[in-house]
Fold each of these.
Amino acid sequence: MAQYIKSGSRPCNAASQGEYAIGASFALRAVKNIIEGYPITMVIPSEGAGHELEANALMQGARNKEGARRFLDWTLSDRAVEAYYDRYEIITVGGGSMPEAYLEAGMPAEIEPVLFPMDYAWSAQNRERILQKWQSEFER
């Protein structure tokens, strides 16, 4: 491993530009680089791909709860789901479809089978220990 960096897209960009042979990165960065014509191949590890979660919520102390509710309702609409594919390759809300260009770049049509099985409760309970180990062993 040449280096660990905090950027999620820079490893793929460096591999795309020939600086490294491999860059462990977000799948969507690889897809977009392939679509842009970079001579790379996306490989999903046989152990499974990682998870990245984005979430929306209505805060108890929100001043404009009605506006927030309308926004949250929109986030579950078909129009929003289609818009998500401009920014994400893994959509957990029903509806929409993986863009054909993503499939041609190597994204599987079904995402769930390639995701690494996660125990989020265990991960949350062990967060500090995991971060400390990572930082002590790998950060420079």
Note: The chain has one domain: 10-137.
Amino acid sequence: MATDVQVPALGESITEGTLAEWLKKPGEAVAQDEPIASLETDKVSVEVPSPVAGVMAEQLVKEGDTVAVGAAIARIDEGGTAAAPAKAAAEAATNPAGAGETPALKGDSTAPVAEADADEDHITTLSPAVRRAVLEYHVDPSKIQGTGKDGRLTKDDVIAAAQGQKAEAPQAKAPAAIPPSPAPQARAPAERREERVKMSRVRQTIAKRLKDAQNTAAMLTTFNDVDMSAVIDARTRYKDLFEKKHGIRLGFMGFFVKACALAAKDVPSVNASLEGDEIVYHDYLDVSVAVSAPKGLVVPVVRDADRMSFAEIEKTIAAYGKKAKEGTLTVDEMTGGTFTISNGGVFGSLLSTPIINPPQSAVLGMHRIEERPVVKDGQIVARPMMYLALSYDHRIIDGREAVTFLVRVKEAIEDPTRLLIDL
């Protein structure tokens, strides 16, 4: 009996996606709930599981096709028999020595072809991000212990295994004599090449949303700088105790999230949104934190950040960062934010004008910390300074309110005691 595999619900307001990659081929055995394909939506990549166990009978769409929620994309034969063993036996009969074959993902060229085929079958069950890492680092996924959910491999597992192989590899002995180098040959004229790559669905959505924000919102950016000495001193003093107690490192983001939550109480319009001719004010702070992912920037949401402790904020952001690298963020985790913080400083940015993430009304841009001369008590001294940028929708937020918000953030960062006494 054949069972259709349908596109699952992809989240609120998402009605279609693009079939990015097939993880199973026709004739291959499929376990129940095992991913058979990877879908790319406007926001995240989603794996499509098989509803039943059996054999992949037919792929109904091609990679790159747009498919609607509920559409059938494949058929699973519940009573079928996998064709892979028969195919392997036929290849073994026609090519017993494996001449001309290169084992997949093996560093040893003498490995049997059957073992390479087994590795290829294993790698198709991995997520796209992990599969790319396996191909890039040339490791055997069947010999790596996974640390993800249900023992599945993560990208970090692959990288760790690759580093372990490199450390264990014996160093080659130096040759007794260096053979003379061949005479240099005339270099061919440099070739001018171009490569055209279709934009991913995520990148297309990012481009559209950012351009819509520029066309719709009356955006303006105000700047300030902040002395990071107090925060750096606090981290240095308490980082070991903090990590020992909470199992997570104390970062800068926790301070800025708490500072923004404090400032939003004084300037609620920064945490508001515009819907039609109505301004919606929120009595909670759901912070969208910009995170770099393999396919572009994503903004998972730290919900009720104003009620969280430093440890809860740091753990949530760290978990989102790991999910972003693995491509496992869900749609629900990236929707519903009321305010955004973007930290371009981790990439070395000195100053920027971030773009609002609609329907939000403001975004805070953090930048790199560098020592600069400043005047303190009539003396020129070096201080670790950071530029802050607040882009805001002038339709909702007046200039006075924007400047006041940024000053409140500056005051809280330069004197973290304010975060404790709500001042």
Note: The longest strand covers residues 379-393.
Amino acid sequence: MEPSAVLSIRGLSKRYSGRRGVQANDGIDLDVLAGQVVGLLGHNGAGKTTLVNQVVGLVRPDAGSIRLDGIDAVADPDGARRLASIQAQANVPITGLTPRTAIQLVGRIRGGSRREVAARTQGLIETLDIGSWADMPSQKISGGIARLTAFCMTAVVPGRIVVLDEPTNDVDPVRRRLLWDAIRTLADDGAGVLLVTHNVREAERVVDHLVILDQGKVIAADTPAGLAASTRGVLTVELDLVPSLGGGLGWPPGVTGTTRERLRAAGTVPAELAADVVRWAQAQVDAGAVERYALTAASLEDVYVRLVGSDRAPVAADAELAVVA
């Protein structure tokens, strides 16, 4: 039996009035099935958060339909919200509470029994390795722990649809891996998960389906394998440049889709030209223009950059880190 759609969006449009009249969403179609993680990718301003706010009834669409587990979310936003759990971009203030108390409070509000909520809370705390902060006043915890606490508050009694808006922001690399596993587990336990992120490389390992937004429109939607199919036989070459390199970098023939940001340059190359590029890159190292280089299989991030343009490329994982103290 095929899993049912817990979230179904058709023709969703939203335009914000004002001098510039921003078209935030423009005819979006999207489905999230039970047991599925759908990644919603896009640069800042692509319309991801506007879409999420309409799903949970905070913003009313200009046109289109949203159904949560069969309920019309536009006509009955309160009913739809009861079926949804959301972790917003901004953490919910929990001043005066400990992480454990905040998680348990939300679990009880969402209808869980005291015993079940306590057990689920402890399980999430252990899964994300935040036990050292679980009973600490919230004003003494770091932004990363606050972010993980917000996820636990969303997941302690999850709705039929769980919406996570940039859940890994401020989380250190070790616990970020644990968080991705916990997100995957939510879907494996039966929830539909809509994951809003710009971290393409890390999201790739947990999502079942990807939807890419650009300027409010869906420009691509497929499984990770389907989107990556166009990169078969293509390699990515990455260079760490020396600080003294002032002018442009003269790439060898065959390298395309080149980008440069500060001291990092990258491009793509057909696999059959890999040996030539390695010889060229090593010569650049010997000449003192490049500190190091690497050739790797092209990734979904490369697909994303090709679709939306390098000027709106997602933030790399390492650029997001804020180590939890």
Note: Residues 66 and 75 are 9 Å apart (CA to CA).
